[in-house]
Amino acid sequence: MKFHTVTHDTFVIERSYRATPQRVFAAWSDPGAKGRWFSPDATEHTLDFRVGGHERNSGGGPVDGPELAFESTYHDIIDNERIVFSSTLLADDQIVTVSLTTVELTPHDGDTRLRLTQQNAFLDGHEQPDWRRTGTNSQLDALGTELAARTSQPERNTMTIDHALAVVSVSDFDRSHRWYEGFFNRPATNVPMPGQLAEWRITNGGWLQMHREPEHAGHSLFNLAVDDIATAVTSLRDRDYEPGDIVGVNNGVSLSSVTDPDGNIITLIGNFREDY
């Protein structure tokens, strides 16, 4: 008879970085920055940084060893202050470790103190607590290197952008409001101007604004990069929307478009690439 084991372990790591909490938070929330320090050797890294969003990196394991993948789900995010996520480490698609991680950021004398608390359940001895502590410390070292590299770059006269907003012009506010609530499968995040403007937060810093502007209705285009385009298309069709067939374009990227009641075009992008 094979006996299964579980080892529980909790550790806390504290670091101080010569950067503001906003910059440290951005290194966790921006997909490009996160990939550079968290998983530089991964063959795949995706990050949808929002409550309920997912992160996955795979590859980069030992030579001739199992195929490794690290998958996370974000449960709590307070901008520039706190991040809470649960994770699983998989070896050849078998879950070997389950974790809960809390990252806290506190300003201190112009620097940022980071406190990382991780609670782990190591299953059947596939991973050891000391390995995880060593790996996490190495990642936080890499985070410091990432922040130092960005700090050392010459400052340029550029604006700081906190949010990007796509605007869709519609002719009938109530009709379009219902349509977009169904499309996103949730109510608008805000309705700052009832009968005129509604908005949905679709990523941490990305928004869609639906604006009643009949003279421009039907001429808007916007794209949404999704983690699984086949699932997204099926979900829309199940809700009686009519996205087009999925079409491959180049480098593994695929597209499917749907039109709102005014003729505005929303295109779903699968396997979106940040680098070419």
Description:
The protein is of the alpha+beta class and 276 residues long. The protein has two domains: 145 residues, START domain (Alpha-D-Glucose-1,6-Bisphosphate, Chain A, domain 4, 2-Layer Sandwich); 107 residues, 2,3-Dihydroxybiphenyl 1,2-Dioxygenase, domain 1 (Roll), CATH 3.10.180.10. Helix content is 23%, strand content 41%. The chain contains five helices and 15 strands. It has a seven-stranded antiparallel sheet with strand order 1-7-6-5-4-3-2, covered by helices on one side. The protein has a four-stranded mixed sheet with strand order 8-11-10-9, covered by helices on one side. Strand 2 and strand 3 form a beta hairpin. Helix 1 packs across helix 2 and helix 2 crosses helix 3.
Major β-sheet profile = 7 strands, antiparallel
Order of helices and strands: EHHEEEEEEHEHEEEEHEEE
Number of helices: 5
Q: What is the number of domains?
A: 2
CATH topology value of the largest domain:
Alpha-D-Glucose-1,6-Bisphosphate, Chain A, domain 4
In angstroms, what is the radius of gyration?
22 Å
Oligomer: single chain
Cα shape = globular
The CATH first-level class of the largest domain comes to Alpha Beta
CATH-scheme architecture of the largest domain: 2-Layer Sandwich
Fraction in beta strands: 35-45%
First CA to last CA: what distance? 51 Å
Q: Any idea what the CATH superfamily of the largest domain is called? A: START domain
Helix content: 10-25%
The spatial strand order of the largest sheet comes to 1-7-6-5-4-3-2
- Could you name the ranges where pLDDT drops below 50 across 5 or more consecutive residues? none
